[in-house]
């Protein structure tokens, strides 16, 4: 658990720093400096290797950082949605934690809601309201 907390703090800090305008300006400065030094190094293979290696390493690490940030955000959204479902009178508690269900079960739920949406559109086309609770 301690390792996870350390990684989480590191990932949050790195994400915050990498998203700042100053970080973009720094990266742009590095690229411009690299490009300007091209003639000095006669556009050698080593000169090209420096930028290729640097950008590959940064890209590799950013993939993990982005995935960590996306996982945290997604988990937080799921918890918030679960709380809204739980706290809403008449809502189906069976919809809590849907992301943990098998694909087939999700498809069954999805088909039900597609049918509800189609029915609501048909009622609306006839001039009826589409804001009811079908189970009521």
What labels describe this entry?
73% helix, 136 residues, mainly alpha, 0% strand, 4 helices, 2 domains
Written description of the protein model:
The protein has about 140 residues and is mostly helical. It has 2 domains: about 1-95; about 100-135. It is built from 4 helices and no strands. The chain has helices spanning about 1-20, 20-35, 45-85, 105-125. Helix 1 crosses helix 3 (about 45-85). The protein is elongated and about 75 Å long.
> Quick one: how many beta strands?
0
Number of spatially distinct domains: 2
Q: What is the terminal separation in angstroms?
A: 45 Å
Helix content: over 70%
Largest sheet: none
Helical segment count: 4
Structural class, by secondary structure, is mainly alpha
The global form is elongated
Q: Beta fraction of the residues?
A: under 5%
Oligomer: single chain
- What is the string of helix and strand elements? HHHH
Unreliable stretches, pLDDT < 50, 5 or more residues? none
Give the overall pLDDT as a whole number.
89
How would you summarize the topology of this molecule?
Blueprint lengths: L1 H17 L2 H16 L8 H43 L15 H23 L11
Compact summary:
By secondary structure, the protein is an all-alpha fold. It has helices spanning 2-18, 21-36, 45-87, 103-125.
């Amino acid at each position: 658990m301690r390792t996870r907390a350390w990684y989480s703090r590191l990932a949050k800090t790195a994400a915050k720093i990498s998203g700042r305008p100053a970080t973009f300006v720094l990266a742009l400065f590095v690229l411009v400096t690299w490009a300007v030094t091209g003639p000095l190094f006669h556009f050698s293979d080593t000169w090209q290797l420096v930028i290729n290696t640097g950008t590959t390493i940064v890209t590799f690490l950013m993939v993990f950082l982005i995935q960590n940030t996306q996982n945290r955000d997604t988990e937080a959204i799921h918890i918030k949605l679960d709380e809204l479902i739980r706290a809403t009178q008449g809502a189906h508690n069976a919809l809590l934690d849907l992301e943990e269900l098998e694909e087939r079960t999700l498809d069954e739920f999805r088909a039900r809601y597609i049918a509800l949406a189609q029915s609501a559109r048909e009622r609306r086309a006839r001039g009826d309201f589409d804001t009811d609770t079908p189970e009521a």
